[in-house]
Give the backbone structure.
Amino acid sequence: MQTEIIPLADDAAEERAEALLRAGELVALPTETVYGLAGDAASGSAVAAIYAAKGRPQFNPLICHVDGLAMAKRVADFDPVAERLAERFWPGPLTLVLPLAENAPVHPLATAGLPTVALRMPQGVAARLAGRLERPLVAPSANPSGKVTGTSAEIVARGLSGRIALILDGGPSAVGVESTIVRPFADRLVLLRAGGVSREALADAAGLPVTDPEADAAIAAPGALASHYAPEGRVRLDAAAVEPGEHVIAFGPAPLPGIETAAAVINLSPTGDLAEAAAHLFAALAAFDSPDIDRIVVASIPRHGLGEAINDRLKRAAAPR
Ligand code: TXA
Ligand code: MG
């Protein structure tokens, strides 16, 4: 299959995407977090094609993208806590895991048969296309399963070219890490994946404690695999110093000891800004993702705010495979 790549410049680009989605084809498109590989949520063949194009196991369910709360309520049952979070953070990088509504316009393959569904309202073209179709779009991150997430059309094309109909090029992703995934309950929020909305912001908005899924093993995100986002080379984290010949992902103004012996250096944020670092994270991993690069080393990055999501992705990129 020939993959078209067109800039997200005008209405014609969106019309092309709409026509392909209506025909059950797959379209990679920008969201504020990362690029998504979108298909019609109600179409079993489109959903199956997403799993095939990514090489993703079918027990790992997809996120539904909606154009607002009205469409979201056709997909899932909202309680007051969920509604408050949606009102506060949508459109934006927050995914809610909620009970699947009766007659939801979502194919069972997309939810992997679970009684719950993950959904969010993104910013921009993904929401507009769901609106045009009057149906949710399922869209996992636009990368082959286990590989570095696409935060630009170039990275997406590297992984998926020839396997999908179209890539809409909207430039680099603004947030750069995936959405935060939360399962709201009346008395607590269970944080299933750290992401673009910080734990602190969630707790503040809900007025509830934010807990980790270890205590609730049955509801952990099925896709939260130990090894993910993996470049070809080995990744060493929280480096105190650089060994000669290493490829370095740096952070902040202070140079690591030995940095002058590095093969190459990418600084995620020379000023030490976590939002900027998140936006540059996957592009840095992609730049060092090559059979010729066997040792990547990463500076220590603070763990608060967006730092939680950054450290989560790095831990998986460094995990044994
Ligand atoms: O920012 C994002 O969330 C991006 C953009 C494209 O929206 N999407 C994304 O999708 O990161 P994906 O498929 O790479 O990650 C979705 C995660 C998976 O780990 C999956 O297991 C989890 O969401 N998930 C989906 N449905 C779930 C459910 N019902 N319960 C718990 N986890 C669920
Ligand atoms: Mg992903």
Q: What stands out?
A: The pocket of magnesium ion (ligand 2) is lined by residues 140-141, 149 (CB under 6 Å). The chain has two domains: 4-211, 234-318. The two ends are 30 Å apart (CA to CA).
